[in-house]
Amino acid sequence: MRPHPGGGLTHARARHRTPYGLAECAWAIEAGKIEVVVVVPPNTTASVTLPGSNAAPIEVGAGTHRWSYPYYVKRVHHARSLDNTISEFIDDSEAWTTMLTTMRKYMPQLSSHMDVGTVMQGDGSTTLGQMLSILPHADELRAALVAALASLEDESLVRKVRYSMSDHLRKLPINGDAVLDAIQRFTVETPSFYHLCFPTGAQSLVDPLACSPYI
After folding, report:
1. What local confidence, expressed as pLDDT, does residue 121 receive?
2. What average pLDDT does range 138-157 have in this prediction?
3. Are residues 16 and 62 in the same domain?
4. Buried-state track 8-28, b at ≥16 Cβ within 10 A, e below 16
């Protein structure tokens, strides 16, 4: 059994009636954790590969088996800017929400017309920048959208760094010296993480406390 979360799903279950009885595999992601439940029919064994783990498959016997552990959902992120079309924003729920939230703040009369149905009746190939160019007094809104989309990109980078760092540490023995050494080496090897820890300039020694918000 090799459950493989993805596609935006937060839970799934599969059952198969074998000659020995019902075999089942289920998983659910909630509050930063994943729970995997496997049911193995009588007089059989199963090989279970846990999601997000680099460990060898686990051999289990008949019965119900459960595992629960921290799990970070990898999200596919596409950078968005004023050059993206309205249709591309609609297909990216996070960017679409960011765009509408910013519009409601700076130009509420426009945001009320930006529901998906209304937009899709028009030409979704128009870029956000083109739409702004025909609006009067949209300079403040334009600047706010640029800043909001840039902030969205920064948040995505932080999530990637946090996941990469956690994955890196999971492969090491759990002791203080190993963790500190991992942070030291990972920061040197990963410029984006280094920049997040020390945005004001280079440091000769990595301070784990400076990086803690991103771990």
Report:
1. 45
2. 83
3. yes
4. eeeeeeeeeeeeeeebbbbbb
